[in-house]
Amino acid sequence: MTHDNKSSNRSGNRSFEDVLRVRMSRRNVIGHGAALSATGFLAALAGNKLFADNATAATAQSASKTVAQGSGTAIAQRQGSSLINFPPLPAAKSAGPVPSISSAYQFDVLIPWGTPIQPGGPTYDGNPNTRPTAAQQAQQVGIGHDGMWLFPIGNGNDHGMLALNNEFGSNTHVLGKEVPESLEDVRLSQHAHGVSVVEIKKVNGKWQTVRSANARRIHVNTPVTFSGPAANSRLLRTTAGNPPLGTVNNCANGKTPWGTYLTCEENFNAYFAATGEWTPTEAQARYGLSAGGSGYGWEKFDPRFDLSNSSYTNEENRFGWVVEIDPMDGSQTPVKRTALGRVKHENAELVEGQGGRAVVYMGDDERFDYIYKFVSESNWRSMRARGISPLDQGKLYVAKFNDDGTGNWLELTINNPALKAKFADQAELLTYTRIAADTVGATPMDRPEWIAVAPNGEVYCNLTNNTRRQVADAANPLAPNPFGHIIKWRDSNNHIGTTFTWDIFVLAKDTHSIDKSAFGSPDGLWADPDGRLFIETDGSQPMVNGVQLNDQMLVADPSTGEICRIFSGVTDGEVTGITVTPDRRTMFINIQHPGNGDPSKTNFPAPQGSNKIPRDATIVITKKDGGIIGS
Ligand code: FEO
Ligand code: CA
Ligand code: CA
What we know:
single chain, five-stranded antiparallel β-sheet, binds MU-OXO-diiron, Neuraminidase, binds calcium ion
């Protein structure tokens, strides 16, 4: 999604760039001289025994060797990974209006925007002279394909329920005009947003939707419910007394070991605006709510989204949550899990921690916002056996990164005197999670996007970019850093501890001289069970040998540092979302906002020259030799 270039964080907490500058500067003195790269930085860290596991030791060894050889861009140059054995997609083939893929792979297209949820339902095919009606759109796959997960049926290798986020679509793309002119227009836009759950099956070698008892659309007007500490809060009620409806700006996702899907509400503020006089409260300002919104115009015809309509005060507090959906029960009411806090959620990476606790890592995607962690109160299996959701009871923490490579998870609880002075109760604290995090002194980050936990327990987070980075001294080769970086850390006590050690995995800028590795603006991220990292991009990409790269997907081997491009999207379209069949012989990813909806840029997935409106769609990837994706 396009993000505005502002920050709502006025807390004055030290920013990550500041911590990094100080730290890298210090390392430079201690370590490897002026050519210090991210790799050298990593090696220096490992030498200080901040990381003790084998994988990191291997990385450090390799890194030290390369640094000793005098390479300034070591990470991308190292070869010989046992995890990555496919020919890279060269930069020269990573541009233009149609997707491309490594020669060892092939791809197909599945469920573009407008595909009927049930076969035989109403279809929209990208005809530039028409659009679906609002009622039709509610029976179709939405737009803005983003996070998703495949829930197996049978062994799952050729059949499953696919839950897919439909993050956003501009009015120009969805309505064919910039401003809605009726409630019907607004409903069409609202129904294009949310989540699509479809049943998909491989028939004669090709994946397709099949008739399903549980396929459904969840959109901005679907009944939802609240659970957890803030569920009954006055802050989630309006004087109009309207029931809670809908989910919006569903960015990335998570999944639980008990078989449910987590969809994360990100830039919900974009859809609220004021038709009359309105002054933001401190909390509204901190969440980026503004009189003009982002121009969707919903407030003109739907008072729920009108910030100046006092009957609907608090409506915006109903968004910004992590929402749990049962993909196998089409009648289930989606549940907003308030214990996980209210921010602009990117994804929700759930891992089983010490003692069987459910641990959820979450980024708040805005410049100078934070990284969070939720830890369930006890073993998730025993909680469920007692009829308690593991996502309803537990502790929420926010990350503080220290200069010396250590970090602290700061607990966001009303028992903290500083927070008790600020909030009436835990419900209010959770509703205004960002303000609580400001208060305890969390570290403002460079737009935390997806977080992924590797099989060795290391946690990776994409920090997509920060155009305001002002680190411009010799001690910090990153400045300015419009292309972002990837950070990693290891929590104490198998994910449930309150301390961690951290390091930089890669600075995107360091990859730019390497054809196969060059990337910027890392966004989507997934670690496969072998330890490969899949990195997807959204935003500024480098120019390589005169080619301006499209958004793309790359595969990284953290044990060697090798990074290799596997897939390129289309002009002005982001690559996001990732899931696989259990055998990992099929991977699904998404192309979002192809051509930003402009048919002169691309007609994807229709043939070029067809004049069709480009449509967001899922890409089905297989390896020509039938191998594991990424190998
Ligand atoms: Fe929806 Fe932060 O990307
Ligand atoms: Ca994005
Ligand atoms: Ca994203």
